[in-house]
Amino acid sequence: MKRLTDKVVIITGGAQGMGKLHAERALSEGAKVVITDINESVGQVTAQSLGEDVLFIQHDVSKESDWQHVVDTVMSRFERIDVLINNAGITYHKSIDDVSLEDYMKIVNINQVSVFLGIKVVSPIMKQQEIGSIINISSMNGLVGGAIGYTDTKFAVRGMTKAAARELSPYNIRVNSVHPGVIQTPMLEEDSVKEAVNAFKKTIPMRRIAQPEEVSNLVCFLASDEASYSTGSEFVIDGGMTAL
Which InterPro entries match (predicted)? Predict the structure, then answer.
């Protein structure tokens, strides 16, 4: 039997990037997958490309009403929710001087408030089922410093994960955070950044950048029953960067 056979998995920010890869991996392990994203056109194309076991729902993760719509739709279609992957997120490459309050609140709402709302809306369903796994995608910058706004919210996700894990553990609901470092993406292959990327690799203890599937492998493990005694923990996948 595959690791996620018949599990219903919700992935926010699932239309592209790592969210899409998490969806592909969950499907390969037998899951029914719901991808949500603010970008409706890309989300619909992605869902169609992934096949009949995928449902797309347009979703502003910062809005409680949108979250409730997602849960109501999923329950109507599948009658359960086994896994929530809070993957949606944004970042800014700006200094403190250049970040406006509007910028700051946008990243807080998308990276932090969305995780709170996801846990709040999905956990009652999981309580009734007496089982569930919530996976919050943080970052190595949820452990060490980085860009203002991004770092703040990723630290918050780490703390929220621990608080939720303690509260939800009696209901057999596991809550964990994943902390990736730099992941190999097409952007890192561009000529304009290749030299900088090669120099950065030398600062990573493992001397390489993570492959996307390595992160999805970890997320799949946490979604599966193989991780049945893991909760409230940080799962770091950064090649040893935060061990320095």
Answer: NAD(P)-bd_dom_sf, SDR_fam
The beta strands (E) that lie in the chain are given as: 8-12, 32-37, 54-58, 83-86, 132-137, 173-180, 234-237
**Residue linked to tokens 């061990």:** 243
Our measurement of the distance from residue 198's CA atom to the centroid of its chain's CA atoms, rounded to an integer in Å, reads 27
150 counts as catalytic: yes
Burial 196-224 (b: 16+ CB within 10 A, else e): eeeeeeeebeeeebbebeebbebbbbbbb
Which residue do the tokens 């279609």 mark?
Answer: 77
Q: How many CA atoms lie within 13 A of 138 on its CB side?
A: 31
Give the tens place of pLDDT for each residue, 217-237: 999 999 999 999 999 999 999
Question: Phi/psi at 62 (nearest 5 deg)?
Answer: -90, 0
* pTM > 0.70: yes or no: yes
- Amino acid 121 reads V
Name the residue with tokens 């926010």. 12
Contact 84, 122 (CB under 8 A): yes
Q: What is the DSSP letter of 32?
A: E
Contact between residue 137 and residue 115 where contact means Cβ atoms under 8 Å apart: no
CA atoms within 13 A of residue 146's CA, in its CB half-sphere: 21
Q: Tens digit of pLDDT for each residue in 127-142?
A: 999 999 999 999 999 9
